[in-house]
Amino acid sequence: MESNVHIDLKSMILNKIKEDDFETYSKIIRIKEITKIDKTIKDQYSISFLLDLFFAFENGSLNIEAVMYEIRFLEGLEETSRTKDSSQFRRPPLKGLWHKHYFDGSISALAQNVKNALDNYGMPYFESMVDEAKTSGEERFITAEDIPHIVNDVVTSNFQRRQADQKTTGEWLIYAIHENVNYFLCLAKHGEGDEQIRTRIDSTCVHEFPFLKSILV
Q1: Residue 43: CB atoms within 10 Å
Q2: Residue 159 is part of which domain span?
Q3: For a Cys staple, 198 with which of 33, 79, 93, 170, CB 3.0–4.6 Å?
Q4: Does the pLDDT at position 1 exceed 50?
Q5: Tens-place pLDDT, residues 59-81
C-alpha cells in the first residue's frame, strides 16, 4: 500500500478492541463522551493520541481536562492558556512538529514548576523582610512564625505568579499543523526521548495523516 494513502486506523483498532475486550472499548467510548473530543477535534486526532489519553487516565496519571483545555485553547475555544506558549521542534527527529505543555497536576510537575518559579522570582516575601530590616537598621532574625509565610510564598504564590505569566510547564501535547489545521498526534513526557516519540508517530500517525511525510525529516 502506498505510504501517502490514508488509513483509518482509529476505526480499525477501536473495532478490534470492541471485538476482543468490550469493557475496555466501552471505557474508551466513555472517555470520548466525557471529553467531547469528537465535537472539538473530530478528524484531527490520531488513535495514538486517543489511547494515550485513555490509558494515562486509567492509571491515574492524567488530568484529562488539563489536556482538553489546552486543545480548546489551540482551537480558539479558550481565551487564555494555562501554560507557556507552543513551540516548534527545531531539530530532528521531531523537526517540523509542535508541542504545547499541559499541566497534569502531578507531584513531579508541581516540583518542576516550583523550581522554575524559584529561579524566576526568587523569594519575594523573604527578600522584603531583609529589605525592611536593612531600612530600619535593626538586627532581625527569622522566627518560627515566619517559616509558613516564606514557604507559602515560595510554593503557592510563586506558582500563581508563574500561572499569571503563562509560564507553567508540564508534559507535552505533540501536534502538527497542516494547512492551518492542528492535528493531535500523541501525548509525551519530557523524559521519553525524541527518538521514542518519533517511533510512535511513525508507527501509526503517518498512516492516518499522510501529509506528515512532507513535514518530518
Answers
A1: 10
A2: 107-164
A3: 93
A4: no
A5: 877 889 999 999 999 999 999 98
